[in-house]
Every structure is written in structure tokens, then in C-alpha cells.
Amino acid sequence: MCEQLQSLTKEEIEKKKERLAGTLMDAFRIARQFSFVFVFYVIASLILAVMGLDARVTNVSLVLMGICFLYKVYEFICNRFCFVDAYLMMLYKTALEQDNPSD
Q1: pTM, to two decimals
Q2: Is 39 helix (H, G, I), strand (E, B) or coil?
Q3: By CB atoms within 10 Å of each CB, which of 16, 17, 74, 80 scores lowest?
């Protein structure tokens, strides 16, 4: 990998840095959105439970909300792995650039 990065031009490296920074920004955005999704899920579940609706309506609503919430949890977990990978790549890239000051 080090050899591949050393063979790139400065423009190519800058483009890769920008794409990596964009990936990190997306990761931060998804993490922030997940906190809102979690709070909304908890509040909506409590409201549904307290409203006193027909049990079937409440149960179906809770199940549908639960499925949506599980999808967001899955998205968040996958995103965390991508975030860690991108962060490690940025650290590697920084270390590589510091080792080659002749560019």
C-alpha cells in the first residue's frame, strides 16, 4: 500500500484526501442523526403506550417502528466500522506524508 501511495501524484493524493474527508463528514452526520432517531423512537413508543389505543393498533405500530429502528441501528453499526476504517487510513496517510517530506 505504501508503494501505491508513493506512486501517486500530489493532485491524486489531494483528491483522495478530499474523498476521505467527505466520508468522515458523512460518518459524523449519520452518528448525529442516529441520536435524534433514538430519542424519537423512545418518545414515540412511550406516547403510543400511554395513548390507550386498541392493543392491535399499538402493537402493530410498535412493531413497525421497531423494524425501522433496527434498520437505523444496522446502518449506524455499519457506519461506525466505515468511520474507524477511514480514520485509520487518514492516520496512515498523515504518517506517510511526514515520512516523505521531499514531495
Answers
A1: 0.59
A2: helix
A3: 74
